[in-house]
Amino acid sequence: MIKSIETTGRTEDDAIAAALRQLNMSRDDVSVEVLERAKSGFLGFGASPAKVRVSWEEPDPEPEPAPEPARRPARPARAAAPAPHAAPAAEHERKPAVPATGEEADRVRQFLSGLFEHMGVEAEAEVAIDPESGAICVELTGERVGALIGRRGETLDAIQHLTNYVLNSGSDERTRVNIDAENYRAKRADALTGLARKTAARVVRYRRNQTLEPMNAYERHVIHTALQDYEGVTTYSTGTEPQRRVVVAYDPSTAPRDGGYPPRRDERPRRDDRPRRSGDRYASRPSAPAPAPEKPPVDKTVKEWL
To answer: Residue-wise over 127-140: b if at least 16 C-beta within 10 A, else e?
Structure first.
């Protein structure tokens, strides 16, 4: 079920921030649509705030089972295995994060060991607790550990998501688990940061929004962080998982005026004001040298002294 609210603010970012505070959600959990852009007006007159529509997805309520007809004969009760149900990732992300304990780190190590055994992969999990964030950091090692990364880290993300779900299932709090192999996360973050800055440069240069390829929550967070202080652009997420994307939008309120980019058509100098090149057919020819000043006339009546 898709729900949405509309908020206003001085800028698009202020309107989005107001909606996130009202919903108590992160930016990656919602989709943003800019309805009206902010207008500064002239000398304070004609100014109007920005207006955005923020949408989010909530799980549909489970339908109630239909009552059995009275004429159906009663059957003997038997135990049935519960159907597996995986909670959406957004539900876990909304839980408050707490520092991990040594017991939780041991549970993660045991779970990964059993998972790799069932997968037939020879890999070991080096588990540690980050003293600053309190998250459980796991480094996978082994001869063929690259198979656990997968294409663009899809297998590694699936293992991390499954480990987080198993550890935090049935709890009102959340313990973060970060899994990495062969320093893939850092390399991927550097590549995404470079991609974000190149895209932002094109957006400022051509003044057009650009939508990136679908990314997971971690990769979208890297893009948002890399461009949060970039002049001339703003970022927001759109779409639903697994096709959720980051939009790098042009922000004229913070765009540099003389950042080395080609000026717009109305800002270009006229042809008469442009400097002429020596090889230009329309270049002005060198002018003739100025005539020498005339000598004053000589008075014939004056005699020369010998």
So the answer is: bebeeeeebbbbbb
Q: What is the pLDDT of residue 172?
A: 83
Give burial (CB, 10 Å; 0-12/13-18/19+) of 126: exposed
Token pair belonging to 180: 């990495």
Residue 58 exposed, middle or buried by CB count within 10 Å (0-12, 13-18, 19+): exposed
pLDDT at 260: 46
**For position 86, what pLDDT does the model report?**
36
The reported pLDDT for the residue numbered 75 is: 45
Residues, the chain: 306
d(CA 201, CA 223): 14
Please tell me whether the overall predicted TM-score, pTM, comes out greater than 0.85 for this model.
no
φ, ψ of residue 249 in degrees (nearest 5): -105, 145
**Please, are residues 171 and 201 in contact by the beta-carbon 8 Å criterion?**
no
Whether the upstream peptide bond of residue 242 has omega within 30° of 0, thus cis, is yes
Beta-carbon count within 10 A of 187 CB = 12
Q: What is the DSSP letter of 274?
A: S
**Stretches in the chain below the pLDDT threshold 70:** 1, 41-47, 58-95, 258-306
Give the C-alpha separation, 77 to 32, whole Å. 50
Is the CA virtual torsion 232, 236, 238, 243 positive or negative?
Answer: positive
Q: What are residue 25's phi and psi, to 5 degrees?
A: -125, 165
Strands 124-129 and 177-181: unpaired
